[in-house]
Amino acid sequence: MKILNKSVFVGPNVYANFPVICYQIDLGELEKWPSVKLGTDFIEGLVKALPSLQQHGCSYGEEGGFLRRLREDEGTWIGHIWEHVAIELQNLAGSHVTFGRTRSLEKPGCYYVVYQYQQRDVGLEAGTLGLKLLTHLMPKNVQEAIGADIEEDFNFADELTDFIKMAQRKEFGPSTASLVAAAEQRDIPWLRLNNYSLVQFGHGKYQQRIQATITSETKHIAVEISCDKEDTHNLLNDLGLPVPQQLMIYSDRQAIRAAKRIGYPVVLKPLNANHGRGVSINLTTDEQVELAFAEAQKHGTSRAVLVESYLTGYDHRMLVVNNELVAVAKRVPGHVVGNGKDSIEKLIEIVNLDPRRGVGHEKVLTRLELDTQAERLMEEGGVNKDTVLEDGQVFFLRSTANLSTGGTAIDVTDIVHPDNRDMAIRAIRAIGLDIGGVDFLTDDISRSYKEIGGGICECNAAPGFRMHVAPSEGQPRDVAGKVMDMLFPAGTDSRIPVAGITGTNGKTTTSRMLASIMKSAGFTTGMTSTDGVYIDGHLTVKGDMTGPTSAQIVLRDPSVDFAIMETARGGIVKRGLGYSTCNVGACLNISADHLGQRGVNTLEQLAQIKRVVVEVAQDCVVLNADDIHCLQMAEFCQAKQICYVTVDSGHGLVREHIRQGGMAVVLEKGINGDMITIYDKGAHIPLLWTHLIPATIEGKAMHNVQNAMFATAMAYSFDTSLEDIRQGLRIFNTSFYQAPGRLNIFDEHPFKVILDYAHNPAAIKTITDLAARLEVKGKRRIVMAMPGDRRDEDIIDAANSIASTFDTFVCKADDDRRGRGHDEVPELIKRTLMAAGVDEDSIEVIPSEEEGVEAALNSCHPGDLLIVLGDNITRCWKQIVHFNNATEVPEEGSSAPSQDYPEKLFAPVENKFELQEGQRIVQDDRGVHIVVERDEESD
Questions:
Q1: Within its chain, how far is the Cα of 697 from the centroid?
Q2: Quick one: average pLDDT of 698-713?
Q3: Rounded distance, CA 671 to CA 652, Å?
Q4: Cβ within 8 Å of residue 56, ≥6 positions away
Q5: What would the DSSP string read from start to end of 716-734?
Q6: pLDDT in tens, 870-906
Q7: Model confidence over 57-66: pLDDT tens digits?
Q8: Are the C-beta atoms of 454 and 391 separated by less than 8 Å?
Q9: Angle, helix 507-520 to helix 702-717, in steps of 10 degrees
C-alpha cells in the first residue's frame, strides 16, 4: 500500500466542518484482500487488540455495525478498517473523536481515508500505529506480497501504552480540557496558543487567556505569594486563619533543630514546588528528617525548605473561584486493601484493573506504581511487595493524596460546614487569587475547624480540576463552568463579527471595500488578503495571506473587533479554514483558475471547495445570482438568511426571492446611470449611483460595480447603517497604495496606464471589457501574461478574450515560470492571437516582464490606453510611475461620457429563470433557492 498524499486540515474543509486528517492511498495488492479474505485470525486478532471497536456503528448506525462489516460477504477493505482503527486509538488515548469516511477515487484500488482528530500529532501517530497494527495482523503470505516491514518483537500492548503517554504530553491536561469543554458548551470560541496549556478564549478584543487554571485575570503578585509557602503561611497566620507552626531552614542540621523545636511529628516540604513533589509527612525521627530534607531540596527551585508541625486528619482540597467555594474533595493517598491471600504486588495489579484507572491523566484515576516512594513506605512499614496483608488491612503506597500519583477523590462539597467554607474563601481572597485551591486537613469537614481543629497546609495557584470534574466517588462539579462564567459574565461578548469572502475573482477588492465601510462605521478591522494581513488598515504581515494561519493572526489580535477573511482555494484545499464559523459568508463567482491542480479539474469541484466558506456562515450567505455554481450553493447553507447579488434587474429567481420577502442587492438602471439597490423583507432601498464610487471609474468598471454590491450586501447583513455603507464606498479608491494590483490607474503620462493582477480567463475578460468601455482617442495596448501552472486551455481562453479588443500586444512570462519553458507561455499566447486573426506585426514576444513593460511604455503615444497585467506588482508600478519618455501633453477631451457602448435605461421585463435537469426551486422563510438532486453516499 502506498500513501499518495497526506493532508492535515485545521478547520472546516470539504470533508467536514472540523479538523480531519486525509490520506490518499493506493492499496495495490491489498485491493485483492478484503477483510474476509484476510481471514478469521486477522479479524479476531484486531478485535482482541481493540475490543472497543465493538462500539463502532459504521454505516449500520448501531453497536457492532463495524464488526459486522468486517465479517459479512467479502468484508471491507483495509482503508476503511484503518479509518476505524485510527479513530479508536485516539479514543483510547482520551481524544473523543467519532467521524471517519473512506471513499474510492477514480483510479481502481485508490481511496481517500478521512478521520477526525483533536491534536495533530496524536491524530497522525494514531494513523501510523493503526497501519502498523493492521500490517502485523495480516497473514504472512499477504505480508510478503506487499513487502511489509515486520518487526519480530512487535508488542501492541507496549506500543499502545507508549502512544497513550505521548498523547497525554500533546493533548490538554484534565483541567485545561475541562475549561475548553465548558467554553464549547457556552459557544465561546477557543484557540490553542502553544503545544501546552496556553489557550485563548474569545476572539479579538474580547479574548481572555488561560494557562492551565491561571487566567488572564489572575494577578501576578498573588501567584508569587502562593508559590512562596513562607509568605503564604505568614499572611494567613496574621489574619488568624488556622495554619501549622512553620520554620524555614537551609540545611539538614537546621531541619533537625527546627523539628525538635516544633515537636515531632513534622512535615518537610520545598519552599516552592507543586503536585506534592518533595513533601514528606509524619516524620518522627532525626534520620527521617535528614532524608526528607534532601528530597525536598531535590524538588524545589530554592535552597530553602520548610519544616511544619504535622496536622492529623483527612486531606481536603477546597476550590475557590471568583470568591465562591465551588467544590471540595476529600483526597485519599494511593493504597491497597488486604484480602488475606494476595501479595501487595498482586493487590496493586487488582487495583489497576479498575477501568477508571489509566496512564497519567488518561482517565479519572491514575494507576498505582511500585516505585521508589512506594518501596520506601513499605520498608518503613516493615513489608515488601511479596507481603500478604491481612483481610481489610489498608496499606498506603503514597504519603500524599495527589490524584496524579494514584490517589482517589471523594466529593464532599454539599456537607462542608459554613465556617470551613468562609475560612477557605478568606484564605484565597487574602492571597488575591481569582482561582485558588486550599489544602485543608480536618477529621470531619462537616464540623467547624473552630470546634474540632484542623489547619491549612497550602494555598495553591493553578489548582487542578481533575478531582472535582471526575471524582472517584460523589457528584462531579462544573468548576470549569464557574471559571468561564467569571471570564465571560452573562451578556458579554466572546466573538467578534467575522466575514468570510471567497470566489475566483474580486475577493481582495471586495474585502478592502468592506473594510472601508466597517472603518467608517467605527470598527477596528483585521483583514486577510492576497497582499497580506492588515490591522486597522495597516499592513502587518506581507505576502499571500489567505490561509488558516493568517486568519488566526486576525482572531488573536486584541485590538480587532471586526474580522474580514479573504479565503482562497489553495488554503481550503491544503489546510481548511482558519475559522470555525463566520457570521456572513460570500461567494463572488466561480470560474476557471488553478484547474488541474491538487485534484481539482472541473468548475463543479472548484465550487465544492469554495462552498466551505458559505457552509459555515451562521447569519447570512451572499451569493452571485448570475453564476449558476454560486446559486447551487444555497442548498448547503444553514445561515438564517440568503442574499442574492445580481446585475440583472429582471432575474427571474431573484425577483421571486424578493416577492417572498428575501434579501437581494440588485443593479437597477435609471436615467442618471446605474443604482445599487437593496431589497429586504419587501422594502426597496436605493443606496448609491455607481458613478459616485471612485473604484468603478464612473460606473464603467463593471467588475468593481459587482464588488461594491457584494460589499454592500455583506455590510448590510451586519446591520451597518446605509450612510456608513455609502461613505465607505465613496472614500474607497483603487490607488496602488490602497489596493495594489487592483485596477491601479496612472494618468500622469500623456497616455493612461492601468495596472492589474488579472491572472485567469475570467479576470482578464473583465479587464478587457473595461478597456472596451473606456473612451480612448488613441490605441488600446496590453502587456499580457498567464501563470505557468495554468492549463493550456485556460491560457488559450484568456488570449482569445483579448484578441478583438486591443491594437497591440506584448506577450511576456511571469518571473516564476512554474514549470514552463523560458518563453513557452508568451509563445502560446502569440500563436493563439494569430489564430484569432491578429496581425503578427501587432504582437511582440518579450519573456522578461521588466523588459516587456518598458517596451510597451515606450511604444505608447498620447491618447493611448495601456493595460499591464503584472506579476511583480510593485516593480511594475515603479516602472510606470518613473517612466519619463513621454513629453507631449494631450488636449483635454470632452467630459461627456463615452457613447461607444450605450446602455438601456430600464429593464422592466422579468427574465424567466430556466431550471436544468435535476434542479428544483425550494421556498423557505429565507426566500427561494435551488436544490439539485444527488445520489446518497454511505460509508
A1: 39
A2: 95
A3: 23
A4: 63, 65, 66, 67, 84, 87, 88
A5: HHTT--HHHHHHHHHH---
A6: 999 999 999 999 998 644 434 434 333 333 433 433 4
A7: 998 989 999 9
A8: no
A9: 50
C-beta separation of 86 from 46 below 8 A? no
Cell of 544: 499571500
User: String of b and e for 807-828 (b: at least 16 CB within 10 Å)?
Assistant: ebbbbbbbeebeebeebbbbbb
Give the integer Cα–Cα distance in Å for 686 and 730.
15
Task: Pull the grid cell for residue 686.
Answer: 436605493
Q: Which helix (H) or strand (E) holds 190?
A: strand 190-192
Distance CA 167, CA 173 (A): 10
Task: Please say whether the beta carbons of 810 and 850 come within 8 A.
Answer: no
CA–CA distance, 309 with 370 (Å, rounded to integer): 29
Please report, for residues 48, 54, 134, the alpha-carbon distance to residue 63 in angstroms, rounded to integers and kept in the order given: 17, 6, 22
Please write the tens of the pLDDT for every residue from 205-244. 999 999 999 999 999 999 999 999 889 999 999 999 999 9
What does DSSP say about strands 663-670 and 641-646: parallel, antiparallel, or unpaired? parallel
Q: Are residues 232 and 292 in contact, defined by beta-carbon separation less than 8 angstroms?
A: no
Distance CA 394, CA 417 (A): 28
- C-alpha cell read off for 811: 506577450
Q: Identify the three-state secondary structure at position 627.
A: coil
Residue 4: partners with Cβ closer than 8 Å, 6 or more residues away: 24, 25, 26, 110
In angstroms, the CA 621 to CA 639 distance is 6
Whether the bond between 34 and the residue before it is cis, its omega within 30 degrees of 0, is no
C-alpha cell at 276: 506534592
- 492: its cell numbers: 458579554
- At residue 554, the 3 state secondary structure works out as helix
Strand partners, 308: 246, 267
Q: Which residues have CB under 8 Å from 519's CB, separation 6+?
A: 525, 536, 537, 728
Reported residue count of the chain is 939
- Extract the C-alpha cell encoding 424: 477557605
> Residue 99 is which amino acid?
F
Q: Which helix (H) or strand (E) holds 335?
A: strand 335-337
Closest listed residue to residue 119, CA positions, set 160, 176, 80, 79: 176
Residue type, 247: L
The number of angstroms, rounded, from the C-alpha of 203 to the middle of its chain's C-alpha atoms is 12
Query: Is residue 200 classed as helix, strand or coil in its secondary structure?
Result: strand
**Which residues partner with 745 through β-bridges?**
754
- 8 A C-beta contact, residue 810 and residue 846: yes
Beta bridge partners of 526: 535, 563
Q: What is the pLDDT of residue 932?
A: 83
Residue 579: CB atoms within 10 A of its CB come to 24
Rounded Cα distance between 39 and 33, Å, is 9
CA 914 to CA 910: how far, in whole Å?
12
Of the candidates 352, 348, 354, the one whose C-alpha atom is nearest the C-alpha of residue 387 is 348
Q: Which residue, among 756, 720, 761, 698, has the nearest Cα to 898 in the 3D structure?
A: 698
Residue 332, beta-bridge partner list: 408
Cα–Cα distances in angstroms (integers) from residue 9 to residues 131, 538, 863, in the given order: 20, 29, 52
Over residues 805-827, mean pLDDT: 94
Residues 468, 481: Cα–Cα separation, whole Å: 12
CA distance linking residue 211 with residue 430, whole number of Å? 22
CA–CA separation, 365 vs 356, rounded Å?
6
The C-alpha atoms of residue 720 and residue 680 are separated, in whole angstroms, by 14
- Is pLDDT of 821 > 80? yes
CA gap 539, 365 in Å, rounded: 50
Which amino acid, residue 64? G
Give the C-alpha separation, 680 to 678, whole Å.
7
**Residue 398: φ, ψ to 5°:** -140, 150
Residues paired with residue 584 on neighbouring β-strands, in sequence order: 499, 620
| Cell numbers found for residue 261 | 523545636
Helix (H, G, I), strand (E, B) or coil at 462: coil
